[in-house]
Protein 1
Amino acid sequence: MLRTPLFAASAATFALILAAGCLPAGNAVGRPPSSAAFVGSETCKSCHAEAFASWQESWHSKIVRPAQGAFLKEAVEKWKSDGTNAGPTVGNVTGKTFKREDVQYVVGARWKQRYLVKNDQNGNLQFLNMQFNRASGKWEKYGQKNDWNTQCATCHTTGYRITAFDDKSGKTLQSDFKELGVGCEACHGPGSAHIVSGSRRDIFNPANVSVQEQSKVCGYCHIRLENGKWKTAQGAPREDFPAPEAGRSYIAGDDWTKWYPQEAIIPGVHAEDPFDKEYAGDLKGLFLRDEQSKASGLYEEAKHHQQYQGFLQSAHYRLGIMSCITCHAPHAGAGKLKKVADHACNSCHDDSYTVEKYMPNTGKTADNLFVRSHTFNKQPRQGGAGAGSMGIPNYYGD
Ligand code: HEC
Ligand code: HEC
Ligand code: HEC
Ligand code: HEC
Ligand code: HEC
Ligand code: HEC
């Protein structure tokens, strides 16, 4: 049941009302000029202290960090063993032995943590063979055999680009990026012109485009896909989505859904890759496809970082009435990115619509640890354990 008279109107009226309010009429949308370069989040701080502070507290700024000061305290204490499993000892690509002191960067902290050491065969970074699960406090196997720089980095850095590749195989030979983590320019585009002009014309603000385009800004990373155009250094299809041309970076506001469609599988986004199909490789089992899904026509996310693909299926998206940033405000909240996403429901629905009930934890991120579904199924499933109750982690102060 919808709460207010406004929202109790028919879905069609509702869509019209919201669409009208979402696009500032007659306001040209700012875009960085084609000559603009990435300058890094520190550069924005002097003029946007408040936006900077809220970003710095968010998880976006923290996904990949230099190891010192960013190790989970518990992981360090259990590095040799958690009582059941031994901690990490070898690099997955080279098979060489590594100590904790060899770890250069850590990836993640909220749900799980993975560890990066040098791959001395090519200068990239490879993963250690175990990851730490924060919910269970245990080590679990992590088998990723591709370098971080060529398998994960587009979604975990800002201004990523391929700079050299092998023509025949598509293997990524060299790449770079401006900044570790999801910086300001991941959502606002490269800022070199804007920091000089101080003009809205030279910078992208997701708030100024349609709700569908807004969600695409987030969907570029909150998605699961198989990339057959660009391969990892080891020759596997990439799981991230670098720009079509080497030397170029993704720019917030780009319509990446139209990039090299013949060479990428993006379930739920490309019409020829439906939600209810059986996929292989990393895409195997990415959606729940049981009787319950078939009956409701909603295929809940079974893995993590697929929020865009869950959301695309929802009435919320299909009616064109909201985007990711209706509920998540990248610039608010103490210690976390979202405003108070879990208070968002009651601005439109009655109190029986709770996050616990309608956003079950279905997307697996580690053993017995799941993230919330964004399909908004009115016949919701029973979810698993989520990160909600875990709180801010303790770090090891070395
Ligand atoms: C020298 C000061 C200065 C620096 C440095 C600066 N900005 Fe701005 N920014 C401004 C001003 C002034 C405005 C407001 C312009 C207006 O309202 O016309 C603005 C507005 C914005 C907006 C809102 C645009 C809109 O259409 O609503 C965004 C987003 C933004 N800046 C992002 C950034 C980012 C990202 C960086 C770092 C790469 C940055 N800014 C660095 C001065 C600066
Ligand atoms: C995850 C995406 C994301 C990141 C990262 C991000 N922003 Fe934003 N930013 C947004 C969105 C979405 C809006 C518009 C809606 C809102 O304010 O929540 C926005 C709005 C703004 C505005 C307009 C004024 C305002 O507060 O609404 C400024 C200025 C801005 N951002 C600067 C920055 C700076 C500086 C950084 C880095 C320190 C940054 N942003 C990082 C997504 C992001
Ligand atoms: C460049 C890739 C990228 C883009 C673009 C991006 N995200 Fe994220 N997002 C991430 C990564 C990586 C994490 C995990 C951070 C961590 O746990 O350390 C994350 C985490 C989150 C979280 C959970 C963490 C928290 O603080 O609650 C939310 C919510 C979120 N993103 C929303 C958004 C929204 C909304 C947008 C669009 C305005 C967006 N993201 C754009 C990569 C991205
Ligand atoms: C298509 C974009 C994308 C790719 C590719 C990607 N990630 Fe992520 N990753 C995300 C987003 C978005 C999140 C946060 C949302 C979620 O987990 O549901 C995340 C979360 C994580 C987390 C959990 C963070 C935390 O704080 O607990 C870890 C660890 C991680 N990713 C590691 C990796 C590794 C390692 C790779 C490469 C093998 C990789 N990711 C590839 C987008 C991506
Ligand atoms: C901006 C208003 C708005 C917000 C915020 C909102 N909803 Fe909705 N919701 C709607 C509308 C409109 C519909 C479609 C109703 C219809 O089709 O009759 C809908 C549909 C749903 C449905 C599907 C019901 C059905 O009949 O298919 C669920 C479940 C749901 N919302 C849960 C939530 C939850 C949980 C939250 C908070 C995280 C939330 N909504 C936030 C407006 C909103
Ligand atoms: C109707 C409101 C709503 C919309 C729209 C929405 N989310 Fe969420 N999202 C939530 C709530 C509520 C949570 C869980 C509580 C929280 O994190 O505050 C959540 C959690 C998340 C998380 C953290 C995972 C977890 O299990 O806590 C990520 C990442 C995320 N959302 C990304 C997105 C992205 C990307 C989009 C757009 C494709 C989106 N959300 C659209 C309400 C929404």
Protein 2
Amino acid sequence: MMPADQPVLLGVLESGATATENSAEETHATAIAISGLHKSFGSQVVLNGTNLNVASGETLAVLGRSGTGKSVLLKLIIGLQKPDSGSIRIHGQEITRLDLDAMNELRKQMGFLFQHAALYDSLTVEQNIAFPLKRHTQMTESQQRARVQELLASVGMERDLQKMPSDLSGGMQKRVGLARALALEPAILLLDEPTAGLDPITSGEIDQLILKLQKEYDMASIVVTHDLLGAKTIADRIALLHDGNVLIEGSFAELEESRDEFVSEFLKRDS
Ligand SMILES: Nc1ncnc2c1ncn2[C@@H]1O[C@H](COP(=O)(O)OP(=O)(O)O)[C@@H](O)[C@H]1O
Ligand SMILES: [Mg+2]
């Protein structure tokens, strides 16, 4: 899916050339560009000038203590909430000023999995995954069926087509949620705590599945997680959110080298 010239474009940007707004370079290389993002609820400041970039094909893990605004950040990117100020650009397009119709259109390029898998309880696995296809594509019934089969196979759930969500284990629900998030072949994937509430072995399996899907679909992804091991497994880069800002970002090794007290404490916690 990625154009053949991608690495070249990335190289150009990394070497310090500036991309003008909405230029082809930025559109290709920077999938998500967040700057100066502010969001408060009443007197509670949650995001306080947050800056974050995710390149096409890159997986960024966002870590942070519970209540630091990780889920809020994802909701702002999907446009379910509006920031107080700041900029969010998706493939160069400023989304904070989009109206609902335009936002819905853009959202088709974004797959997301909420913290609580949020499958439709009254629909079968097959119907759950067909839902975005029915809503957003012109596919015929048989094309939809074929696509659902393909998606379920890619998450190892091809035999569970007719099951209801309540008949699935937590790990299986996440798999179905992932398949549904991928239904429209999104350029951007946002996962909120994809392994929360799962046992360590199942978490490891889901991490491996996410890795495999990243390679297959070649998306820009943000994975919010409290799971350090998971972040280390699936992410190209890690950002640690603290007090409304990215305190540090880099590879896991770079985080480990940090002398910052909060960073060291955070890494010590469960690694
Ligand atoms: N819709 C909302 N109204 C009021 N407060 C909210 C709302 N959404 C989130 N918050 C608050 O914002 C803070 C960050 O929440 P959240 O992003 O869910 O944290 P986390 O990092 O654990 O995902 C929390 O204190 C939460 O209570
Ligand atoms: Mg959360």
